[in-house]
């Protein structure tokens, strides 16, 4: 997980450095738009969620061995990836925005896809159970042999 955190930081930096020092004005405007108001705070949040929190949290061995801490850090990384993808797409629709344009549609779409995901999972789990509800033939046969032997020994005594 620490390797992936460093990898994400490397990928961001490699894209940024090529655009910036390559003097590619079209791509520079794309990046600058996302690092200025009103999206500046979100760009900083992406950096914190994708690099700062996971990197410094995963430096200790104890955090990597505790499943609850590790799952929390993974959730923070996934949230950072989602916000990063949102930052890549959403500002292109609102170039002249003075504040972050968030309405009921954004959480509505998130809830829609979360509901579809949960419906797909529940559909799958109702058709294919997670636990063994049958026994292999070898176990059934062994149980039958064991029961017959128990009856025979009881009859002999």
Written account of the structure:
It is a single chain. The protein is mostly helical and 157 residues long. The chain has helices spanning 2-21, 25-35, 40-57, 61-65, 67-89, 105-127, 137-156. The chain is elongated. It starts with a helix and ends with a helix.
Rounded to the nearest angstrom, the radius of gyration is: 27 Å
Shape: elongated
**Main β sheet profile:** none
Q: Could you list the spans in which at least 5 consecutive residues all have pLDDT below 50?
A: none
Average pLDDT across residues?
79
Helix content: over 70%
Distance between the termini: 64 Å
Residue share in β-strands: under 5%
Q: How do the SSEs run, as a string of H and E? A: HHHHHHH
Counting helices, strands and paired strands, the structural category is: mainly alpha
Q: How many extended strands?
A: 0
Q: How many helical elements?
A: 7
Summarize the structure.
The protein is mainly alpha-helical and 157 residues long. It has helices at 2-21, 25-35, 40-57, 61-65, 67-89, 105-127, 137-156. It has seven helices and no strands.
Give a topology summary:
Elements: H1 2-21, H2 25-35, H3 40-57, H4 61-65, H5 67-89, H6 105-127, H7 137-156
Helix pairs in contact: 1-3, 3-5
Record keyword descriptors for this entry.
elongated, 76% helix, 7 helices, 0% strand, mainly alpha, 157 residues
């Amino acid at each position: 997980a620490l390797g992936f955190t460093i990898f994400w930081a490397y990928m961001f930096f490699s894209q940024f450095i090529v655009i910036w020092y390559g003097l590619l004005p079209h791509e520079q405007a794309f990046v600058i738009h996302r690092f200025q108001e009103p999206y500046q705070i979100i760009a900083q949040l992406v950096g914190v969620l994708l690099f700062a929190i996971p990197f410094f949290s995963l430096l200790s061995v104890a955090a990597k061995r505790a499943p609850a801490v590790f799952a929390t850090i993974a959730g923070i990384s996934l949230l950072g990836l989602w916000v990063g993808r949102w930052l890549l797409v959403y500002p292109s629709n609102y170039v002249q925005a003075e504040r972050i344009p968030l309405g009921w549609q954004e959480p509505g779409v998130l809830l829609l896809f979360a509901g579809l995901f949960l419906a797909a999972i529940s559909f799958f789990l109702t058709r294919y159970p997670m636990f063994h509800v049958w026994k292999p033939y070898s176990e059934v046969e062994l149980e039958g042999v064991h029961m017959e032997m128990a009856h025979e020994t009881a009859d002999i005594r």
